[in-house]
Amino acid sequence: MALADCCQPLHDGAVAGTPEALMRSRYSAFALGRHNYLLNSWHSTTRPAELNADDTHWVRLEIVDHGVDESDGEPRGHVHFRAFFCEGLEGREGRAGRSRWGMLEERSRFLREQGHWRYVDGQPRVSRLKPGRNDACPCGSGRKLKQCCGN
C-alpha cells in the first residue's frame, strides 16, 4: 500500500482509527525519520523528551496480532509486530555492504488519550539475523539477498 493511502494522512494529523493503524504509521515515521510524529503519537505518561537519530534502515513490518479490549470500560489496544532492519548500510540507498541485519519483535500497548490512540510502551526483543547470500532477503521482496539488498 502506498504511503499516501496509508500513513501519510496520519502523519498530517488524521486520527488513527485503531492501534494497528497507529503502529503502522509509527513504523513508517521511524523509517522516514519523522521524530515529531513519533513523539506526538506517544502517550503523555511514557513519552521521552527526545529521540536520537541513528543509522537504522527499516525494511519491513509484519503485524503478528492486534486487537482492542474494552471489557473494563476503558479501551486498551495491543499490537504484536516484527520489524526488520539493517544497520551499517554502505553505498546506495537500500544496499547493504558490511551490514548487520536484525529483527525487533514487540508486543506494544496503546491507550486512548484525548480521543486519539497513543503508544504507551512495549516489550521489545531484538534478534540478530544472519542471512546468507542465497537466503531470502529480509526486506520481504522474495528475491535472494545477493540479488536484492545485499547487491
TrEMBL record:
Entry superkingdom: Bacteria
Pfam families membership: SEC-C (PF02810), YchJ_M-like (PF17775)
Domain (YchJ-like middle NTF2-like): residue spans on this chain: 18-122
UniProt name for this protein: SEC-C motif-containing protein
